[in-house]
Amino acid sequence: MTAGDRNGIITVDAPAKINLFMHITGKRTDDFHLLESLTVFAECGDRVSVQPSDTFSLSISGPFSNGLAANDPDNLVLRAANQLARKFDRRGGAEIHLDKNLPVSSGIGGGSADAAATLRALEMMWNLGTDAGCLADIGLALGADVPVCLYGEPALMSGIGETVEPVSRLPDCSLVLVNAGEPVSTPEVFAQRTGDFSPSGSWPLTTSYKDFVAALAARRNDLSDAAIDVAPSIGEALGGLGQSAGCDLARLSGSGGTCFGLYRDMAAARSAAAEISERNPHWWVVATEVRNAKGT
Prior knowledge:
The chain is α+β, with helices and mostly antiparallel strands. It is built from nine helices and eleven strands.
């Protein structure tokens, strides 16, 4: 969702990105890994607001704001703003505010989604009129997940993240997201990974929720074992989801540490989330719908 107000503030949602499966299909000579993933977005996430200013500044609020430093030049929000300004030779800046509702270093694209929302918000504020490909090129330089986060709808991402193909007719379904509170380093997980690469494939046209679950079950997250080695609490989160009533699939998203459970509807997801939260009161647990699923 995008909104503006009479003070010129533009606000853009930065929804959580979920990798329903993730295959590592190869490795380039420059050491970038090739991947293949079906990615969806949740109806929960961060939010980025921008308004005109002479210089760039960033403020952060929200339940996970303590995990980030607003004056860190490596913050993806500030890097995105500065790269867009350089690309279009913008002399002014912006006051940027990040409402941080997603755990940090959690495998659900929080930083990448925030960077994508920043690019979109500033593009609108500055009336740049640029095309999606230009923003995606800037985004890819920031991180592999930024282009798909710019797209913001169900998609197959591949390559190093530069290829984003729309996926239509996903069935209505709901998710429970669980994070046990242990930040996970993506480079460390990739370094820990062993085994062969997965073959590339195509995603079938799923005509029902049952077919959707079956197609996902035939795939996997190739980083799951390595992520559990790095952060054993991921295994506990997967166990909690898998034991919950109505869970049809439990899997790690991205490189971790957030896991998701797939449920037929929100009633089942809310019930499972309440059950998991009661047993693990210190975990981050959220029941949510899949954003922009077209239904069947």
